[in-house]
């Protein structure tokens, strides 16, 4: 787990999660991450996540349990993806399964800044633009970014492009 300070010019925290198919007790993860967050400026915290439900619990607790409500400016979800979708821990999010998780995503919408970015750092996820639009809409119109090729973790110079979607519009 590493703490990386960000510029204090923008409000909001930046959180980075990677897939962990064997989830720990989310309260234990929260106990590890909470003391490391700076409530006076943005930070990035990297930790494993086991499911959509676990992600929601951690984000709500992190953002809503302090003196003031924290807003998320950048959320990075790193893990396994393909041309059909992406993973959050053991949960696979595709066009066919999105409905199972949309309520979870909608519950997180108030936690994000108006200019928030969600980066899906997972192989080939950028090929499914309709799914990226659905994610953007579910989170209230945040920017969603994903790569069309293998991610830089797998192959740093892999062919592909970043796709960016906001609401019902995508560009690359």
What is the overall pLDDT average? 78
Q: Please count the helical segments.
A: 4
The percentage helix is: 10-25%
- Low-pLDDT runs of 5+ residues are 1-10, 35-44
Residue fraction in strands: 25-35%
Rg, Å, rounded = 15 Å
Shape: globular
Helix-strand category: alpha/beta
End-to-end Cα distance: 32 Å
Biggest sheet strand line-up: 1-3-2-4-8-9-10-11
| Biggest pleated sheet | 8 strands, mixed
Give the ordered list of helices and strands.
Answer: EEHEHEEEEHEHEEE
Any overview of this molecule?
The protein has 172 residues and is α/β, with parallel strands linked by helices. It contains 4 helices and 11 strands; from the N terminus they run E-E-H-E-H-E-E-E-E-H-E-H-E-E-E. The chain has helices spanning 26-33, 52-64, 98-108, 129-138, and strands at 3-5, 13-19, 43-49, 72-79, 81-82, 85-88, 91-94, 112-122, 143-147, 162-166, 169-171. The chain has an 8-stranded mixed β-sheet with strand order 1-3-2-4-8-9-10-11. Strand 6 (85-88) and strand 7 form a beta hairpin. Mean pLDDT is 78; it is low at 1-10 and 35-44.
In brief:
With 172 residues, the protein is of the alpha/beta class.
Task: Based on the model shown, name its key terms.
single chain, 172 residues, alpha/beta, eight-stranded mixed beta sheet, three-stranded antiparallel beta sheet, 4 helices, 11 strands, disordered N terminus
SSE layout and pairing:
Blueprint: E1 3-5, E2 13-19, H1 26-33, E3 43-49, H2 52-64, E4 72-79, E5 81-82, E6 85-88, E7 91-94, H3 98-108, E8 112-122, H4 129-138, E9 143-147, E10 162-166, E11 169-171
Parallel strand pairs: 2-3, 2-4, 4-8, 8-9
Antiparallel strand pairs: 1-3, 5-6, 6-7, 9-10, 10-11
Helix pairs in contact: 1-2, 2-3, 3-4
């Amino acid at each position: 787990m590493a703490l990386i300070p960000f510029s204090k010019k923008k409000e909001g925290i930046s959180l980075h999660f990677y897939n962990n198919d064997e989830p720990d007790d989310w309260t234990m993860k929260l106990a590890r991450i909470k003391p490391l967050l700076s409530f006076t400026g943005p930070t990035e915290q990297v930790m494993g996540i086991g499911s959509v439900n676990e992600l929601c619990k951690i984000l709500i607790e992190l953002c809503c349990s302090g003196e003031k409500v924290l807003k998320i400016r950048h959320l990075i979800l790193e893990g396994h993806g393909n041309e059909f979708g992406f993973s959050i821990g053991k949960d696979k999010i595709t066009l066919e399964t999105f409905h199972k998780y949309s309520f979870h995503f909608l519950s997180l919408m108030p936690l994000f800044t108006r200019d928030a970015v969600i980066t899906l750092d997972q192989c080939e996820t950028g090929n499914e633009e309709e799914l990226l639009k659905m994610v953007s809409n579910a989170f209230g119109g945040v920017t969603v970014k994903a790569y069309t090729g293998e991610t830089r973790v797998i192959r740093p110079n892999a062919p592909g492009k970043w796709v960016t979607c906001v609401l019902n519009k995508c560009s690359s």
